[in-house]
Amino acid sequence: MTDAANTPAPSDMTPAKGSLHVLDARTKKRNAAEARFRIYGLSAVVIGLVFLVVLLTTILSNGVGAFQQTFISAQVYLDPAKLDKKGERDIEDIKKVSTFGYTPLIQQALFDKVQELGVETPLDSAKDMKALISASAAAIVRDEVIANPDLIGQTVEFRLLAASRVDGYLKGRVTREAVARDKNIDAEHLDLVDALREAGVIAKGFNLSFITGADASESRPEQAGLGVSMLGSFFMMLVVLALSLPIGVAASIYLEEFAPKNRLTDIIEVNISNLAAVPSIVFGILGLAVFIQFMHLPQSAPLVGGLVLTLMTLPTIIISTRASLKAVPPSIRDAALGVGASKMQSVFHHVLPLAMPGILTGTIIGLAQALGETAPLLLIGMVGYIATNYPDGLAGGFVDPNSAMPAQIYEWAKRADPAYYERAWGGIIILLVFLMTMNIIAILLRRRFERRW
Amino acid sequence: MYDAVNTEQSVQQTETKISARNVQVYYGDTHAIKDVDVDIADKTVTAFIGPSGCGKSTFLRCLNRMNDTIDICRVEGRIELDGEDIYDPKVDPVQLRAKVGMVFQKPNPFPKSIYDNIAYGPRIHGMARNKAELDEIVERALRRGAIWDEVKDRLDAPGTGLSGGQQQRLCIARAVATEPEVLLMDEPCSALDPIATAQVEELIDELRQNYSVVIVTHSMQQAARVSQKTAFFHLGNLVEFGDTSQIFTNPEDPRTESYITGRIG
């Protein structure tokens, strides 16, 4: 009856004369709009994918080189006259010989090799070999001798790091044109490198120390590794996990299940959402003021970094935990209360297990975010050339000055030597592998918990 | 009207299990239940009928204080279970709910095994000293829920994997597992098909021997079939309360008659 008032009287209506097989104008317009929308959507996805592919190929092509390093094999005669003048094999005496004592031996060993191979080269002294060998080579040989003093007097085969210019030449980073303006290496050396490479003395190999090693000084990019800052990140993540998971989950359970709904809790809720959007550097300066200047915790320590990142991660965890608690159907709470469970029993026995996949996913996403965070670390001193050695033990891991993976990458990208540029990209690859692993763990945990029923 | 109720009580000589006097319920500013007086007898099925939004579910939820979970809900008046005021500050709602079990509109088994669904209540109330006792309680509850034969071979299967009717009987079994004295049912058959409904109704009739059952229903046929007492609610008022046979055949209040014959609702 009411329909009659809205539609024109039957006599005014144009009778539906069109066949179903012919589209009328409105339908055509609608279909065109839908088709356009699909094209927009599809092109957005394609553009996104193109950028992703470009990003990944750039990262891989720039960074893969860092996992390869050029090594020189040399038979070094560990001359007792130079390394242990007293001849008593006293470890204290041997330790007195610095790396400067070892450098000539290595240079001599390489020069002998060149002579033995009969390579024609204008470089006619052992000292000329300096440009080929990394400054860290002497330290490697020295460490080996100190660990094993009986080697003195023998000729030992070492696999030594080549200088970063040689490494760059083998990887195509250093070209003969560029060498003309380079004080560190010249064309004669490159000729020699070519000859030694043919003879198998110089070769590229897998660079384990890039993954496990410590950072190195500005002039020795060939020695720098991500290992120590990886430990720094690891200890920070321990702090973040140990603090933010229990605090975040407890806060969310309280807010979601127990707290009265009033103005105060509304304000808290809004502020938690706002905190999630606060720039991370703000947390950094807060950490600097509270943890370092007020509480006098050690600077540059993963403990402080972890505390700052905890503050940053908490809102993420609280928001995702509350969302997953909210998603648990209220009928489950009713059921538990109906059989006489207390509020807390209903939450811990029924609601929390059901919310677990969401909580874990949120936590791991929060951790991944914290793992990649750089800005707050700049303010608490976890950046720069800090770590040269592995931390001593577990306690040391938390309080010894260290860096973190993203801060280390930033530091490398900042350095002048192009060899560090390559290492920065390599570091990005490692960081991405970690993030991907964490995401996969999140997905697996989610599946595992959901498959239970 | 109240005299009529009292006469009914005295005639039947049944013991009053729950007595409500002058109950008012407010949701914020809304006055949802007004001046409700009712006596619910032991070992009897009492049906609450009435149009949607009339307050019958709200009143049912007052009887085991499930309304406590709603922040804005406020209950006034006096509700006694065996002569004890259940809204007394000394009463812990958790203890009350162990005595007054509840079955909900939608079957809501825990996402756990059938066994754990039943065993949960007895476990938290410490009713079993060992596994054997617990097994016994579970079996007894499932038998009372008339579902034992269907699930005895798959107690480890998830309760959520059962059919709707089985789930609802599982929920009834879960409610009786804690040995309640009163069983509240909030439209227990509204999500079930006619066959499952018939099974649940049959079950309700059996449960009457041990418990005082209060059932909210939208189906007047169901009220007529399962209950001995019927209360008709309208706009928050208890309009009429009496023997089911009397309410359906010879209602005193014109509003009851209109509802039963389908003129309001």
UniProtKB/TrEMBL annotation, chain A:
The lineage, from the top, is: Bacteria, Pseudomonadati, Pseudomonadota, Alphaproteobacteria, Rhodobacterales
- Tell me the keywords, alphabetical order: Cell membrane, Membrane, Transmembrane, Transmembrane helix, Transport
Q: Where in the cell is it found?
A: Cell inner membrane; Cell membrane
| Bilayer topology annotation | Multi-pass membrane protein
Tagged with keyword Nucleotide-binding: no
Q: Name one GO molecular function term.
A: phosphate transmembrane transporter activity
Q: Where are the transmembrane segments?
A: 39-60, 230-255, 275-295, 301-319, 351-372, 424-445
One Pfam family in the UniProt entry: DUF3333
Where primarily located?
Answer: membrane
The name this protein carries in UniProt is Phosphate transport system permease protein PstA
Has UniProt tagged this entry with the keyword Transmembrane? yes
* Biological-process GO terms, alphabetical: phosphate ion transmembrane transport
Q: According to its UniProt record, which protein family does this protein belong to?
A: Belongs to the binding-protein-dependent transport system permease family. CysTW subfamily.
Query: Any idea where the ABC transmembrane type-1 domain is?
Result: 230-442
Q: What is the protein's species of origin?
A: Lutimaribacter saemankumensis
- Record's GO cellular component terms: plasma membrane
TrEMBL record, chain B:
Keyword ATP-binding (UniProt): yes
Q: Where in the cell is it found?
A: Cell inner membrane
Question: Which keywords, in A-to-Z order, does the entry hold?
Answer: ATP-binding, Cell membrane, Membrane, Nucleotide-binding, Phosphate transport, Translocase, Transport
GO terms for cellular component: plasma membrane
Which InterPro entries does the entry link to?
AAA+_ATPase, ABC_transporter-like_ATP-bd, ABC_transporter-like_CS, P-loop_NTPase, PstB-like
Where does the ABC transporter domain lie?
18-260
Q: Does the keyword Calcium apply?
A: no
**An example Gene Ontology biological process:** phosphate ion transmembrane transport
What topology in the membrane does the UniProt record assign? Peripheral membrane protein
Per its record, how is this protein called by name? Phosphate transport system ATP-binding protein
